[in-house]
Amino acid sequence: MKSKMIRLAALALICFAPGAIRAQTAPDAQIQRGKYLVENVALCAECHTPRDAKGQLDHSQWLQGNLIDFKPDHPMDYAAVAPPIAGLPGFTDEKAVTFLETGIDLTGKRAMWPMPQFRFNHDDAVAVVAYLRSLKP
Predict the structure, then answer these.
(1) Calpha distance 123→6 (Å, rounded)
(2) What CATH number corresponds to the domain at position 42?
(3) Residue 3 domain-assigned?
(4) Rounded-to-integer distance, Cα 107 and Cα 32, Å
(5) For the chain, which end, N or C, has fewer CB atoms within 10 Å of the first or last residue's CB respectively?
(6) Per-residue pLDDT reduced to its tens digit, 13-72
């Protein structure tokens, strides 16, 4: 009986330990997923990071906001500034996730052109928020 209980306990450790380990590393994995989405999928830096004299993204001002240097070719409302998103100033996590899932900004309107109307799934939106929060404002 005692050896059976030891085997069950060992089995439980084997089954549940990986989940416990994942739970401890989830924030890092989530931040890395968010970084991948921000830098390689959504390409946020293209608008939200200034460029240096050679036209390269200025990594010392990563996602710190930038003037948008192009305009639509016909009359329409558009954003002339890409605000800073490092640290997500002005956003609660909930509002930021909602924005990334729906495209609805803090004013309750759709984001202005040229901001894409993202439709991230919930897990990806949470990962993007985790990454942006990890950056210094």
Answers:
(1) 38
(2) 1.10.760.10
(3) no
(4) 29
(5) N
(6) 333 333 333 333 348 999 999 999 999 999 999 999 999 999 999 999 999 999 988 777
The Cα 25–Cα 58 span in angstroms is 30
Structural domain of 53: 29-134
Q: Within a domain: residue 6? A: no
Residue 13 lies in a domain: no
Q: How many domains does the chain have?
A: 1
Residue 112 resides in a domain: yes
Query: pTM for this one?
Result: 0.76
Q: Which residue has the tokens 């004299």?
A: 53
Which of 90-107 are b and which e, b meaning 16 or more Cβ less than 10 Å from the residue's Cβ?
A: ebeeeebbbbbbebeeee
